[in-house]
Design a protein that fits this description.
The complex is a heterodimer. Chain A has 2 domains: about 20-90, no CATH class; about 160-165 and about 180-450, Aldolase class I (TIM Barrel, Alpha-Beta Barrel). Chain A starts with about 20 loop residues before the first strand and ends in a 9-residue tail after the last helix. In chain A, strand 11 (about 260), helix 8 and strand 12 (about 280-290) form a beta-alpha-beta unit. Chain A has an 8-stranded parallel barrel, surrounded by 5 helices. Chain A has helices at about 40, 50-55, 70-75, 90, 100-110, 200-215, 250-255, 265-275, 295-300, 325-340, 360-365, 375-380, 405-430, 435-440, 450-460, and strands at about 20-25, 65, 80-85, 115-120, 135, 160, 185, 190-195, 220, 235-240, 260, 280-290, 305-310, 350, 370-375, 445-450. Chain A is α/β, with parallel strands linked by helices. Chain A is globular. By secondary structure, chain B is an alpha/beta fold. Chain B has helices at about 45, 80-85, 110-120, 195-210, 245-250, 275-280, 300-315, 330-340, 360-365, 370-385, 400-410, 420-425, 455-480, 505; strands spanning about 30-35, 90-95, 145, 165, 180, 185, 210-215, 230-235, 250-255, 265-270, 290, 320-325, 345-350, 355-360, 390-395, 415, 495. In chain B, strands 6-16-15-13-12-9-8-7 form an 8-stranded parallel β-sheet. A two-stranded antiparallel ribbon of chain B has the order 1-2. The chains are: A alpha/beta, B alpha/beta. Chains A and B meet through helix 3, strand 3, helix 5, strand 4 and helix 11 of A and strand 14, helix 9, helix 10 and strand 17 of B.
Chain lengths: ~475, ~525
């Protein structure tokens, strides 16, 4: 049995006190800490241990990052003067898509590299927009060849970025005709790119490329962001090449394993040109996710490219349209357009933008993507609060505009991806699917909100009048 | 009439007793604050019929108000409204701001507080609390009972109403197990919960004439006196499964999967494997325990039948329950289980569960129970076998009205886990699994934390909660002219879904509550 792919997590605490969800409220300040029975001294989790100053005198409200919300302090305070509120900073965190609870969970995963686990059932909304309107399947009795996470066979999460030949040709003597084309494979269905329009510097890029190297995947990089210091990692860099980068970029491309050509009138020609220079190279085309993406995909699938990378907005929506659809629907339409024309095997599909949680990765693959590209989540792994002050030219509150320690930055991203990889295994284990490549486009192993409503509730309740999530 | 034989007459209903919170400061919806102007005149203590203002005869100073008993702003119309009547204007009333930090979309703060109150008193809450609906914006929270026709309403007291169910419909000569309430306790293992909680649940099950379940952690000797009311669970790890524990059981439950983590097996972290737990499970102290997924001896319906036959052979009286999660083909699984000889099909929906599970699994894997019940009910009816099987639903059934909705969607009864823990003052912080376990002494085997609850207290709190629930069920049944909960099974005509109504009709039903909690 070959060696298992394993991502080693190491605890990497945040560099600055993280935004805690809760804050303490004490109704009578002069009491604090004077009581022998003070609940702060008894906290099961030792939340107040490091802030003993607060137990002695009330300086300012405490913001509780590690509080587990057991309410014992509130309920056991001898005077009943202790309560809790929501930290105002937490309240203002994130936005509608990158919600504060998502940021909090991403920080946790980047800190510990562990899968978020909790008891007492699910606590969120019944359904929601986009990926929240689908559930994944499970199998009660998993066949031996499709064994779960604790089973005898392990789950393979690798994907290919190059095309496979559809058939082999042989010489009359029985030998293989021509060289067998090399196949570029990455062990997780995730690539990296640093988010555009967010704080950026060489140390952040250097951290990301180190993480990509450790995970054996790729960082998509604009040639302008390349520095000599990144040279040792060039095998894990996929340059995003625009026509104006020619021909200066070509010496670098010789050393790469993958490039991405930006979509434009010349894209196919450029791709062919690069492939001629370096036949072993995986050539992708990067293009915006617009309503005509399926047509473009069909056109490009006939050209000689290995992968298509569609860029959605940072909230996972289509671009260049007034009524954007969400990534989930877009992936399906691109995938199905290729399937209908028997072109799906010709090209690999990657999607970026709005991949905020591990489940998005799994669901994107189920909808028909081969892999996803993480972007904003990488910045969040490095403590970014998505306050977007950097877009106004203001200083970053988490000091990401200064140099970050490379080892710390790398480890935070590795931890996050380790946790995502673990969660992908959970989902696939439950479904009894052993290979991410077989998960691709398995819509039959997922359940859609609108389909369940139609199949099960419509015969009972009649016609659905609200189409909020349909 | 057949159902009268199961009816629980008044003398069978367990006694409710006031069982207050274990904690000094119970959390309530409102806060009453008393300021310095108070002269200790004691008027408020004589006014308030709810006991918000305690006062002892030999002690004239005012004590801290028991805010959680306050009925809040609806008291304004009463002539005993203390805020208005206080001669010094020393009292203020406001909504407790801590509600923002308590609960979640599925179990909002008011639902938690209401269940604590029901567990304390045995009656539906007197405080104005929305405890029938959560804020999840779908499923049970958008399904309502249709406006009843007043002429149908029955004039029967609660004692004459029948809330009992039959578990064995196969008429195969095995035990004719009947429960007095349409629900029983879910499996929570020795190791995951404190022993006093397990025993308290079993004692409550005995008094309520229902069942509780061992979960997958063995059968502690302390449960043997209640053996007639304890289900033995056989799960994939087979922890603690022995011939005698199969022989004790009125019902043996095969756990194929659980809603909290469908398809993922079980996991008990090393910290919770104390010497006692390890001895029970025959494992090593401090080593994390995995229950594999799936049963490695079951790869087909035929293998499953072999399992069922095996239990039936060992215990010729026991009923067999098959607990499965809710995949797309849950209807096929259910029918397969029926033909393999099961008496009970237990569907565990994906949004429920008490055990620790990866968040990604709780949210995403398998379908919510609201879809699974009608799907299975319909399919088994079409197959012509629905009358021969007891269909039990669980996973995200939070209160009495959810249970009634599940029954109207097609289940015979429900299994309750979380609500029982909430009755024991669980706040759903979700930190059940790590370190020493539950900080509130419920889901822990820690030496110190595991002793925070007494068996008698747990027993009475659970009895109280179900007694309050029974009152709720009786009220629902009466308004549709039904005298037995078994007449409610599959009555989807009594339900409406807000999203399927036109605007005018929708406006006649209370809207789905807005989430008040900050997640």
């Amino acid at each position: 049995m070959p060696k298992k792919y394993h991502i080693t997590a190491k605890t990497a605490p945040p560099r600055f006190p993280a935004v805690g969800k809760y804050t303490t409220v004490e109704f009578r300040e002069d009491c604090a800490g004077s009581c022998r029975e003070c609940v702060k001294k008894k906290c099961v989790y030792g939340v107040f241990k490091e802030t003993h100053e607060h137990a002695l005198k009330m300086i300012e409200p405490e913001y509780l990052y590690v509080c587990q919300s057991c309410f014992r302090c509130v309920q056991e305070c001898t005077k009943g003067i202790f309560s809790r509120g929501i930290n105002p900073a937490y309240r203002n965190l994130g936005n509608d898509y990158w919600r504060r609870d998502i940021l909090h969970r991403l920080w946790y995963q980047a800190h510990f590299g562990k899968i978020p686990v909790s008891g007492a059932g699910y606590r969120g909304p019944f359904t929601g927009k986009g990926f929240d309107a689908m559930w994944t399947d499970m199998s009660e009795i998993v066949r031996p060849t499709r064994d779960g996470i604790h089973g005898r066979e392990y789950i393979n999460t690798s994907i290919e970025l190059t095309r496979r030949p559809r058939f082999l040709t042989f010489t009359p003597e029985g030998g293989l005709e021509g060289a067998f084309p090399s196949i570029l494979e990455i062990p997780i269905p995730i690539l990296f790119q640093w988010p555009k329009d967010l704080v950026k510097n060489t140390s952040l890029i250097a951290s990301a490329v180190r993480a990509a190297a450790e995970l054996e995947t790729f960082l998509l990089l604009d040639p302008d962001d390349f520095t000599r210091a990144l040279s040792p990692f060039i095998e894990n860099i996929a340059f995003r090449i625009r026509p104006e980068d020619f021909p200066g970029i070509l010496p670098l491309v010789q050393k790469c394993a993958m490039v991405e050509v930006s979509y434009g009138p010349d894209a196919v020609r450029l791709a062919a040109h690069i492939r001629k220079l370096n036949p072993g190279l995986a050539v992708a085309v990067g293009l915006p996710l617009t309503p005509d993406a399926p047509d473009t995909a069909v056109r490009l699938a006939g050209a000689n490219v290995d992968a298509l990378h569609f860029y959605a907005s940072e909230n996972g929506e289509e671009t260049q349209t007034a009524s954007p659809r969400f990534l989930k629907d877009c992936i399906q339409s691109v995938h199905l357009a290729l399937v209908d024309r028997s072109l799906r095997q010709n090209v690999n599909l990657l999607f970026s933008g709005g991949i905020a949680m591990a489940e998005h990765m799994a669901k994107a693959v189920i909808c028909g993507a081969d892999g996803v590209v993480a972007d904003t989540a990488l910045a969040v792994a490095l403590d970014c609060r998505l306050c977007f002050r950097c877009r106004e030219g203001r200083a970053c509150p988490m000091k990401l505009d200064e140099d970050v320690p490379l080892e710390w930055g790398k480890q935070r991203m590795v931890n996050l991806m380790g946790a995502w990889h673990g969660q992908l295994l959970e989902v696939m284990g439950a479904m009894g699917i052993r290979e991410t490549r077989r998960l691709r486009g398995e819509m039959g192993r997922s359940m859609q909100f609108n389909e369940l409503e139609e199949e099960i509730f419509a015969p009972i309740f009649g016609k659905r009048r609200v189409t909020e999530y349909a | 009439m057949e159902h009268r034989t199961i009816a629980s007459a008044a003398d069978e209903l367990p006694e409710t007793r006031k069982t207050p919170s274990r904690f000094r400061n119970p959390i309530g919806k409102y806060m009453i604050l008393r300021n310095d102007r108070c002269t200790g005149c004691g008027l408020c203590a004589t006014l308030c019929p709810y006991g918000v203002h305690p006062r002892y005869p030999a002690y004239s100073r005012a004590l801290r108000p028991r805010s959680h008993r306050c009925i809040g702003l609806k008291c304004r119309q009463n002539d005993y409204y203390c805020i208005q009547r206080c001669p010094e204007h020393a009292l203020t009333l406001k909504k407790n701001p801590i509600l923002e930090t308590l609960g979640d979309f599925r179990w909002p703060a008011e639902m938690l507080i209401a269940h604590w109150e029901m567990a304390e008193t045995g009656n539906p809450p007197v405080v104005e609390l929305e405890y029938r609906l959560g804020a999840s914006g779908g499923g049970f929270d958008k399904i309502r009972f249709r406006h009843p026709d007043p002429s149908q309403s029955l004039d029967l007291p609660d004692d004459a109403m029948d809330t009992g169910i039959r578990l064995n419909k196969r008429e195969d000569g095995r035990l004719d197990k009947r429960l007095s309430i349409p629900c029983y306790g879910g499996g929570m293992s020795y190791g995951s919960t404190a022993l006093s909680v397990m025993v308290g649940r079993a004692r409550a099950a005995k008094r309520l004439n229902t069942l509780t379940c061992t979960g997958e952690g063995g059968y502690p000797a302390e449960l043997i006196p209640y053996a007639d009311h304890v289900i033995t669970q056989v799960a994939t790890g087979l922890f603690g499964v022995r011939e005698e524990t199969i022989l004790f059981a009125p019902v043996v439950e095969f756990k194929y999967a659980q809603g909290a983590k469908p398809g993922l097996g079980g996991h008990l972290l090393g910290d919770k494997v104390t010497p006692e737990v390890a001895a029970m499970r025959e494992t090593v102290v401090g080593n994390a325990l995995f229950s594999p997924f799936p049963f490695h001896s079951v790869y087909s319906v035929e293998d499953h039948k072999k399992h069922v036959d095996w239990v039936k052979e060992i215990n010729p009286d026991a009923l067999v329950s098959v607990k499965v999660s809710t995949p797309t083909d849950v209807d096929m699984v259910a029918v397969g289980s029926y033909y393999a000889g099961a008496h009970i099909i237990h569907l565990d929906g994906s949004y429920g569960g008490t055990g620790a599970a990866p968040d990604i699994a709780k949210k995403n894997i398998a379908m919510p129970i609201e879809y699974a019940i009608p799907k299975v009910h319909r399919f088994m009816t079409e197959e012509g076998v629905r009358d021969k099987i007891c269909l039990i639903a669980s996973g995200g059934i939070r209160n009495a009205v959810d249970a009634a909705k599940a029954i109207a969607l097609g289940a015979d009864g429900v299994v309750i886990g979380t609500a029982e823990l909430v009755a024991l003052e669980c706040v759903r912080c979700g930190n059940c699994e790590s370190g020493r376990g539950c900080a509130r002494g419920i889901a822990t085997t820690d030496r110190k934390l595991g002793c925070m609850i007494s068996e008698a207290w747990a027993e009475q709190r659970i009895v109280n909660m179900y007694t309050a629930w029974r009152k709720e069920w009786c009220a629902i049944l009466r308004q549709y002219g039904l005298s037995s909960i078994r007449e409610l099974v599959g009555r989807t005509d009594l339900l409406v879904h807000l999203d399927y109504l036109d605007d005018a009709e929708r406006a006649t039903y209370p809207p789905a509550p807005e989430p008040g909690v900050i997640i």
